[in-house]
Amino acid sequence: QGQPPFMQRLIYNYAASGRLDEAIPKLGPFYKHKSDVMFNELRERASSLLRWREPTGGFFAWLELDEHVDPELLQQTTREEGVQIVVGRAFPGSGMSSLGPRPDTASEAGTTIANVDFHETDPLSDRISLTYDTLRRTSLSGTAGDPRIRRVLVDTVRDSRNAGLRLLALDVLRGHVDDREVRAALVRAVRDDDNAGARLKALEALRGRAADDPEVRGAIVEALVKDTNPGVRVRAIDALQGTRGPETLAVLKRLADQDPNEYVRLRSAALVSEMLPQESAR
Fold first, then answer.
1. Does the predicted model carry a pTM greater than 0.85?
2. What is the pLDDT of residue 58?
3. Based on C-alpha coordinates, what's the Rg of the chain?
């Protein structure tokens, strides 16, 4: 991954001092041991789910997953266990747009995005200025209609640990829900983001999309049933307006009777009353 300029300068000075040459003979066996332990564990525990070729150098290994393994879910699970993996869509040949028209070097083509900073955002005009690291510091200005900017924003919503950055990215992306990657990131935020404000913004962006998209509808209903924040549950009710169906109606009826929050019960009952005449007419 890319490093900020200050870190690059530290590494340059360390190498120029000659200490890097002294450290390499010590670091080689250290990392070889770590690599051996990792591949031994993979062979013992995951050989039925993964295929791989053991590298002869470098710091990374490419793993091919069994078709029944969800790479996004695997990434989330390993992150919770303190292990970082990068899903294949971030690399060339995976069908994902690159960060620019052409990478300057072959090695830069497969890098992931890090250290995103937003310098100027205007959700009303959709304009944004940001910088990020790959192998170098990169600046972009424009709108989220630019696939390069949109990819940075989607990666920020999905992977950034900074809730403020995720909220800014969600503000900009709300006008681009027709994009498949954007919608998937919003659905994931509704289900998994630990920040209630981010879940609220994602629900706002998905409002009106539940009727035509089962994945969106499922995420909203899941928020209704499981989210512990009553404000999020109210926003989920709003996001379901215009959605019809017996499953949705059953969930709303249950909330109207049983939700511990009075306002959630009232909003659920109001939406049920809007839906019932149409349901009865069928």
1. no
2. 74
3. 23
Model confidence over 1-23: pLDDT tens digits? Answer: 445 677 778 888 888 898 888 88
Q: Which CB contacts under 8 angstroms, 24+ apart, belong to 143-148?
A: 144/172, 144/173, 144/175, 144/176, 145/176, 147/97, 148/97, 148/98, 148/99, 148/100
- Over the range 204-234, which residues count as b (16 or more CB within 10 Å of their CB) and which as e? ebbbebbeeeeebbebbbebbeebeebbbbb
Tokens 């300057």, residue? 104
Query: Which of 132, 184, 130 is CA-nearest to residue 157?
Result: 184
- Average pLDDT in the 66-81 region? 78
For residue 143 the two structure tokens come to 């709108």
